[in-house]
Automatic annotation (TrEMBL):
UniProt name for this protein: Cytochrome P450
PROSITE patterns in the record: CYTOCHROME_P450
Organism from which the protein derives: Aspergillus versicolor CBS 583.65
Signal peptide interval: none
Gene Ontology terms: biological process: secondary metabolite biosynthetic process
Domain of life the protein comes from: Eukaryota
Keyword Hydrolase: no
Length: 392
């Protein structure tokens, strides 16, 4: 009898706790006056259901919320999301020195890394150590021609490792072009929507991580010459292709919340209290029909037309994020795109192969964009060799 009473008392305490917490979140929480569904304001289980059970679908639930409640929505008990492309810079290039949300960086599985650094000042210090090696000047000076016969995943790994460590991992020499680094990253990406909510999953699944090469000098690999990056960047259509590729590949589709430690942030008539995460999603910016008419259409000409009109559409490309938290490798990333696309065009005539719209339609948010099943993937078949790549 006493044991039964104890169980009932414990259940009653839990029930009272959850009831009190729900009442607080709905009526007394600093975000209680913001628009949004009562259920998402009361519990984080909604996000867990759509991202964990349904597999990365919360992004589209957020879109439905915005359709119902407007551009600013309380999407979880503690977080505000804004869907307004013109406001993106106010969060991610803000001069108020915003921090990352500590509850969001667990998905990276590397708490001491630069990308997972929460504090703005600490991140700035860490980034400063590497920034000069990835500056536009450094990348331009060391850029080599990308092999036109390379498989993209292997190419990416070999270029980055050659530049960063002075020694390529040599995945292009593999008959299958298999990049073990890429495979490992892809396997981890499939769990990003879970590890963000439950960071311990990475610890359980991968108790031992590679240590890297701490004593290796960045930029040790000297690249040879060829067509210069500066020349390629002057080609309007190629630039349009690169920009459109960035827009439709999205980079990270997962939102990246920022937290103002001391000052309130303003959005129109709303004041977001300090200490509460505020986020936007690159996916919504890239697919904004007011900026990019027919946003699902790959149209490089839109960038040429925008330039003629004097519109700076590139400020809405957020695939590498923006501001002080922008990916340190952005210049290397763009260099790879320009050079690889240019040399593919020079050496080969090719056409799409076994690729439909379904192969590039984002359907799941697992940190990076996923299809309903698998990764985004485009296949091409060489129909004619225009020049011998080995003689280049």
């Amino acid at each position: 009898m006493i044991l039964q009473f104890l169980y009932l008392a414990i259940l009653a305490l839990f029930a009272a706790f959850f009831l009190a917490r729900t009442i607080y979140r709905l009526h007394f929480h600093p975000l209680s006056r913001f628009p949004g569904p009562k259920l998402t304001a009361a519990t984080g289980l909604v996000e867990i259901y759509h991202d964990v059970v349904r597999g990365g679908k919360f992004l589209w639930e957020m879109e439905k919320m915005h359709e119902t409640y407007g551009p600013i929505v309380r999407i979880t008990p503690h977080e505000i999301h804004i869907k307004d492309s013109s406001y993106y810079d106010s969060i991610y290039t803000n001069s108020k020195k915003l921090n990352k949300d500590p509850n969001f960086v667990g998905l990276f599985g590397s708490p001491q890394s630069m990308i997972a650094t929460v504090d703005h000042a600490h991140h700035r210090f860490r980034r400063g150590i590497l920034a000069s090696f990835f500056s536009k000047r450094s990348i331009t000076a060391l850029t080599r021609r990308s092999a036109a016969f390379a498989a993209f995943a292997a190419l990416t790994t070999d270029i980055i490792t050659h530049y960063s460590y002075g020694e390529s991992f040599g995945f292009l020499d593999s008959e299958s072009f298999r990049s073990e680094v890429r495979v490992a990253i892809m396997e981890t990406e499939e769990l990003d929507h879970i590890t963000r909510l439950f960071p311990f999953v990475l610890t359980v699944m991968r108790p031992c991580y590679g240590g890297g090469c701490d004593d290796t000098e960045l930029g040790a690999g000297v690249m040879d010459g060829g067509v210069t990056l500066a020349q390629l960047e002057q080609l309007p259509y190629l630039t349009g292709v690169v920009n459109e590729a960035q827009r439709l590949s999205h980079g990270l589709v997962i939102r990246s919340p920022r937290v103002s430690p001391t000052e309130a942030l303003m959005y129109k008539n709303y004041s977001i209290p300090p200490g509460n995460p505020l986020a936007m999603s690159s996916y919504f910016v890239h697919m904004d029909p007011t900026l990019f008419p027919d946003p699902t259409v790959f149209n490089p000409d839109r960038w040429i037309e925008a330039t003629k009109r004097g519109d700076n559409l590139t400020r809405f490309i957020t695939a590498f994020s923006k501001g002080t938290r922008q990916c340190v490798g952005i210049n290397l990333g763009y260099a790879k795109l320009y050079l690889t696309l240019a040399y593919f065009a020079i050496f080969f005539d090719y056409e799409l192969h076994e690729t439909t719209e379904e192969n590039i339609t984002v359907a799941r948010d697992r940190g990076v964009p996923f299809l309903e099943k698998g990764h985004l993937m485009v296949k091409a078949k060489v129909v004619k060799v225009l020049r011998n790549p080995y003689a280049a």
